[in-house]
Design brief:
Layout: E1 17-21, E2 24-27, E3 32-35, H1 38-41, H2 50-60, H3 73-85, E4 90-94, H4 97-114, E5 122-126, H5 135-140, H6 144-147, E6 157-160, H7 165-171, E7 176-181, E8 184-185, E9 191-192, H8 195-208, E10 211-215, E11 239-242, E12 253-257, H9 278-291, H10 294-315, E13 322-328, E14 331-336, H11 341-351, E15 353-354, E16 356-358, E17 362-365, H12 373-395
Parallel strand pairs: 3-15, 5-6, 5-7, 7-10, 10-11
Antiparallel strand pairs: 1-2, 2-3, 4-12, 8-9, 11-12, 13-14, 14-17, 16-17
Length: 396
C-alpha cells in the first residue's frame, strides 16, 4: 500500500472540519460539534472572531513577510506590549511552542556560557512533561513513547519527579544551568504544581545562580485566568516560552526573558526566517487587544469557576467513571478511573462534543475563552448525556 500523502504520524479521526462558527466546528459531512478542545488550547477567541479575522485580512493585504533582515515596526509593537504585560525585558518571536522552548533552552545555556561557565549546560526537567517534538524538546521530556525511534537523545537534561522540591534540589550540581517546568502539566494530565514547589524552585534558582525557565505554551495568554499562570504563584521566571493562544489560531510563539537572562543572546546567536513576520504580529496584537485586560481575565476566572462547580457536582453522579476535577481557569481536566481516550471518542462521535485526552487518565476541557452561558449549558447537556450512554454501553 502506498504511503498517504499526509505523512501518517497522526491517528486522525473521521471528523473533518471545514468551517468554524464561534465555539462550534462544522465538518465536511455537515455535522456540528461543540469545540471544547480549541485546537488544543489555541483558538482562544473561537473560530470566527471579527477582530482577529480583520487584523489578519488587513495585514495580508498590506505586507505578509520580509524576514528579519529589516526593521519590524509590527514586531516592536507586540514585543513592547508583552514586555509591559509581563516580567520580561525582551522577546524573541517564533512560529510554534517547540521553537519557543528551543529558544528558551538556548537562552539558558547562553546565559552561563557568556559568563564563562561553559560546564553549566544541564536543565533539570520533570517527569510526564511535554515540551515539544523537536530533538531538544523530546530530550527534555521524560517520556519513552516520544523517544522511541529517535535515539540517541541530546544530552543536557536531567529528569526529576514533578512537584518534588527535595528531589530537584538533590539534582543540582556543577553542570546545572536551571530548571525547565510547566506550572500546570497539560499533556501530563492537568497536574498542577504546588505553591511550595514553584516558590522553592524560584528560591533555589536565586540561591545557586540558576535560571527558572517556564514552559507556559499551554497555560499562557489568559488560559488559567491570569495572563500567565505563574502570576498565581506570586513568582516570576527568568525565561518563559509561550505559544498556542498567543496567535489565536495563527502560528505564533515567543521566548520572553529578563535582560539578565538574555545577556548571552547576542548578534548571530539565534534566528528565524518566519518568526515575527508581519502577519503573525498582526494576529498577536489582535489577540492582546481582546484578552490583555483585567475584565477579560476576570471573565475567564468566573467561567472557569462555573465550569468547575458544575463538574464537581456532575462527577458525583458517576463515581465509577470520574475521580476528580483538576486545573485552573479554563484549563480543566476530569481525572477518570480508566484511560480517558475511549470516553473522549464517545463524546465526539455520539454527542458532538470535542475534548482532548491527556496522560494520567485525564480528559482535558480547553474551550475557547469567549464561551458564554449558552455554550456552558450545551457542554453540560452533552457531557451528561455522554456519560449516561457511555456507562450504559460499558454495562452492555
Amino acid at each position: 500500500m502506498a504511503i498517504d500523502p499526509l505523512m501518517p504520524v497522526y491517528p486522525r479521526c473521521d471528523v473533518r472540519p471545514v468551517k468554524g462558527e464561534h465555539c462550534h466546528l462544522v465538518s465536511e459531512d455537515g455535522r456540528r460539534f461543540l469545540d471544547f478542545a480549541a485546537g488544543i488550547a489555541v483558538n482562544i477567541l473561537g473560530h470566527s472572531h471579527p477582530g482577529l479575522i480583520g487584523a489578519i485580512q488587513d495585514q495580508a493585504a498590506t505586507l505578509m513577510h520580509v524576514s528579519n533582515l529589516y526593521g519590524s515596526p509590527q514586531g516592536e509593537r507586540l514585543a513592547q506590549r508583552l514586555v509591559d504585560l509581563t516580567f520580561a525585558d525582551t522577546v524573541f518571536f517564533t512560529n510554534s511552542g517547540a521553537e519557543a522552548v528551543e529558544a528558551a533552552i538556548k537562552t539558558a545555556r547562553a546565559y552561563h556560557q557568556y559568563s564563562g561557565n561553559s560546564d553549566r549546560h544541564e536543565l533539570i526537567t520533570f517527569n510526564n512533561a511535554f515540551h515539544g517534538r523537536t530533538m531538544a524538546t523530546i530530550s527534555a521530556s521524560d517520556q519513552e513513547k516520544m523517544h522511541k525511534g529517535f535515539l540517541p537523545l541530546l544530552p543536557g537534561f536531567r529528569y526529576c519527579p514533578f512537584d518534588d522540591l527535595a528531589a530537584a534540589e538533590a539534582l543540582i550540581g556543577p553542570q546545572t544551568a536551571g530548571f525547565l517546568v510547566e506550572p500546570i502539566q497539560g499533556e501530563g494530565g492537568i497536574r498542577e504544581a504546588s505553591q511550595t514547589f514553584m516558590q522553592g524552585l524560584r528560591d533555589l534558582a536565586d540561591r545557586h545562580d540558576l535560571l527558572l525557565v517556564l514552559d507556559e505554551v499551554q497555560t499562557g495568554v489568559a488560559r488559567t485566568g491570569t495572563f500567565y499562570a505563574h502570576e498565581q504563584y506570586g513568582i516570576a521566571p527568568d525565561i518563559l516560552a509561550t505559544a498556542k493562544g498567543i496567535g489565536g489560531g495563527f502560528p505564533l510563539g515567543a521566548c520572553l526573558a529578563t535582560e539578565k537572562a538574555a545577556r548571552g543572546m547576542q548578534f548571530g546567536t539565534h534566528g528565524s526566517t518566519y518568526g515575527g513576520n508581519p502577519l503573525a504580529m498582526a494576529a498577536g496584537n489582535a489577540v492582546l487587544d481582546v484578552v490583555a485586560n483585567e475584565a477579560f481575565l476576570e471573565s475567564v476566572r468566573d467561567k472557569g469557576e462555573r465550569l468547575r462547580a458544575g463538574l464537581e457536582q456532575f462527577i458525583g453522579n458517576y463515581p465509577e467513571l470520574f475521580e476528580a476535577v483538576r486545573g485552573r481557569g479554563l484549563m480543566l481536566g476530569l481525572k477518570m478511573t480508566a484511560e480517558s481516550r475511549p470516553f473522549v471518542v464517545h463524546l465526539r462521535d455520539h454527542h458532538g462534543l470535542l475534548t482532548v485526552s491527556a496522560g494520567d487518565n485525564t480528559m482535558r476541557i480547553l474551550p475557547p475563552l469567549v464561551i458564554g452561558d449558552a455554550e456552558i449549558d450545551e457542554f453540560f447537556d452533552k457531557l451528561s448525556a455522554g456519560a449516561a450512554s457511555f456507562k450504559a454501553s460499558e454495562a452492555a
